[in-house]
Fold this sequence. Notes:
Layout: H1 2-28, E1 30-34, E2 38-44, E3 48-61, E4 69-70, E5 73-81, H2 83-92, E6 95-109, E7 111-112, E8 115-127, E9 135-140, E10 150-152, E11 156-162, E12 165-174, E13 179-188, E14 203-205
Antiparallel strand pairs: 1-3, 2-3, 2-13, 3-5, 4-10, 5-9, 6-8, 6-11, 6-12, 7-10, 11-14, 12-13
Amino acid sequence: xxxxxxRAGTVSVIVSGVACLLTIGQAxxxxxxxxxxxxxxxxxxxxxxxxxxxxxxxxxxxxxxxxGTITPAAISGTATxxxxxxxxxxxxxxxxxxxxxxxxxxxxxxxxxASATVTELDLPxxxxxxxxxxxxxxxxxxxxxxxxxxxxxxxxxxxxxxGNTFKLEVDxxxxxxxxxxxTLNCTVKITNPAQNRAFAPAIPVV
Length: 206
């Protein structure tokens, strides 16, 4: 009888321990925060201001502690040229890809600093044949990316958003194998109502 009691107690401890570990794992699991599509107007060489659709995402712990540090991780996103620009800039002008770096300012609510900039996001060489329709390029965080840290504010929620500006320092690839450097300085397009640039969901602050 005594052995049965001891075994039951051991099983209870093991089950409780596993439950504890599962709870801790769930509390610390990374959460993905994503924007919708944000329309920027970019200064293209020779053709002036042209639209560019941008999305972005990052991971963070499930919650933040008031006064604690929030450092975005696994940052990535897309930059999409519309079908017209794919046909003119890429196909008609004999370009078939690009490579470069992305600079993305970020704003914060209920976290400090109120704004900071992520630099050196990598846009690796992406060279593909022309296909009618939009052309999308992917950028990602690498070891060279400078990622700012934020201090969470009061209990509640901390919200992050893409900034008003966005920059791509890229080389466009021509079909003959040469590269042409372009810098695209972009500003968010003013609309009514204003575009939603926020990452969702917000980060709970406890």
